[in-house]
């Protein structure tokens, strides 16, 4: 299977220098499943010709808000709708989760409850109770028609969404291992945009494992079986 990666943003330079950009994080995470990968840097206005350029698709995270005015967002939303109409399967992570919801008629906004940073607990259909790293303030606050919640926690009600048999999206980051989150905490530790107490808590929690491999297995199962993987 050829998995097209739509890179919607770039990792902070110190993180990318050590761990690679988001595309490399995902190719490592999904390496056990034997995909062929091709990457389009849509954030830099590099787009595929259409949905047929890959068998399935994955949209990465980004520092940008889905609701912000950036040149890449309107054509990305158009591509998302075209992929959905084609019936090809699609995965979305963090910003990818949000932009897919927005493109299909949902609403994304800066969450009044603040930030989620670091290791968080989620209950997810098909997996049960797991822990994944998060780094976001924006959330999907209104679902598109046809979307169903398949995972949540007390902070993020719409953390995992499934659309019919073709789209699976997740708000936290299965590609951000504890080692990578440590790099984020170092790179952004002095940024006043992030609450000090949340950064300190994330650093303390980062000695504990996350369930990245389990969620990667769910992603791979979804690409093969669709909604059945969540039952």
TrEMBL record:
It comes from the Bacteria. InterPro entries: ChyE-like (IPR044992), Class_I_gatase-like (IPR029062), GATASE (IPR017926). Gene3D superfamilies: 3.40.50.880. It comes from Celeribacter indicus. One of its GO terms (cellular component) is cytosol. Keywords: Glutamine amidotransferase, Transferase. It holds the Pfam family GATase. This is Glutamine amidotransferase. GO terms for molecular function: transferase activity. PROSITE patterns: GATASE_TYPE_1. Residues 73-178 form the Glutamine amidotransferase domain.
